[in-house]
Amino acid sequence: MNSVHAIDAAKTPSIEDTRNASLAEPSHALPAQSDELPGIRVPGASEKTVKRKQGLSKDALCNLGWFVLAWLIIVALWEICAATGLLNPHILPPPSETLPYLFSGSASVGFGVQKSSLFESSLITMARIFGGLLLGILLAMVVSILVIEVRVVRRLVMPIVQTLAPVAPVAWIPFAIAIVGVGVPAAIFVVVMAIFSSVTISAVAAFDGVPQEYIKVAQTLGTSRQRLWRHVLLPAAAPSILTMLRMSLFGAWMAVLAGEMAGINSGLGYLVITGQQMFNMKLVMVGVLTIGLLGFAMDRLMLWMQGHIIWWQRNG
């Protein structure tokens, strides 16, 4: 009997042994706590960021693939219709004739020192578009801020802006030639007048649409008017404003092409209208395709800039 009690005593740990063991070994009853402060680093955040970037790259490749496929289908149908006689190749020359003409260097207009190639015409048109866009957007933003800040300016200026908004870009060409003459200034003037009213109206609507709760909270915290614009109004209205600026790019293209076709004798619009007058449809098709590709590239550029400027939407 004494031996049995001795064996049980040997198997049963004492209170002191149990306490020492609990201090020596970590407890597995609760998960280990992280030493990182909450909000500083979220476990798995880097993995989510990598997955998001991988998803974006896959989406970009997928969109590029669909873009290429769509144009391959159009080119194939265009070539088949021209070969079978469904399309008149003299009016709509097929890609097998248009592409060699594009790379032959024959796509040019004018004579002597006034001769301009397709590349030079493209540079001229894009310079006019960017110049008109920058000036028109700058003026529109200044006016829209004044409209928000000064009630008298809203009552005096907005009726005029709303009246000028429906005027087509072509209607400004005679005024442009009479005021600033022919050439780059006239084209920039037409672009500015074409986008100024619409950009101003859209910017004012975006600023008016900022929730009043944001403004009241900022004012309660004693935010100055300058900081209110920089940290509340502009960030809150940025998505709408940038979308509106992207749409104004197409208005700028239409305005500058209309001006170049109607009296500003240079640029891609002038190249296309000259090709039509000379019945050089290959030149017309090359000009139209160049306009489309450049417009698409500029739109992608603005979309990329929009995604980086309003980064909180991209990462949200």
UniProtKB/TrEMBL annotation:
<feature type="domain" description="ABC transmembrane type-1">
    <location>
        <begin position="118"/>
        <end position="302"/>
    </location>
</feature>
<feature type="transmembrane region" description="Helical">
    <location>
        <begin position="61"/>
        <end position="87"/>
    </location>
</feature>
<feature type="transmembrane region" description="Helical">
    <location>
        <begin position="251"/>
        <end position="272"/>
    </location>
</feature>
<keyword id="KW-0812">Transmembrane</keyword>
<feature type="transmembrane region" description="Helical">
    <location>
        <begin position="160"/>
        <end position="180"/>
    </location>
</feature>
<keyword id="KW-1003">Cell membrane</keyword>
<protein>
    <submittedName>
        <fullName>ABC transporter permease</fullName>
    </submittedName>
</protein>
<comment type="similarity">
    <text>Belongs to the binding-protein-dependent transport system permease family.</text>
</comment>
<dbReference type="InterPro" id="IPR035906">
    <property type="entry name" value="MetI-like_sf"/>
</dbReference>
<feature type="transmembrane region" description="Helical">
    <location>
        <begin position="126"/>
        <end position="148"/>
    </location>
</feature>
<keyword id="KW-0472">Membrane</keyword>
<keyword id="KW-1133">Transmembrane helix</keyword>
<feature type="transmembrane region" description="Helical">
    <location>
        <begin position="279"/>
        <end position="298"/>
    </location>
</feature>
<dbReference type="GO" id="GO:0005886">
    <property type="term" value="C:plasma membrane"/>
</dbReference>
<dbReference type="GO" id="GO:0055085">
    <property type="term" value="P:transmembrane transport"/>
</dbReference>
<feature type="transmembrane region" description="Helical">
    <location>
        <begin position="186"/>
        <end position="207"/>
    </location>
</feature>
<keyword id="KW-0813">Transport</keyword>
<dbReference type="InterPro" id="IPR000515">
    <property type="entry name" value="MetI-like"/>
</dbReference>
<feature type="transmembrane region" description="Helical">
    <location>
        <begin position="228"/>
        <end position="245"/>
    </location>
</feature>
<dbReference type="Pfam" id="PF00528">
    <property type="entry name" value="BPD_transp_1"/>
</dbReference>
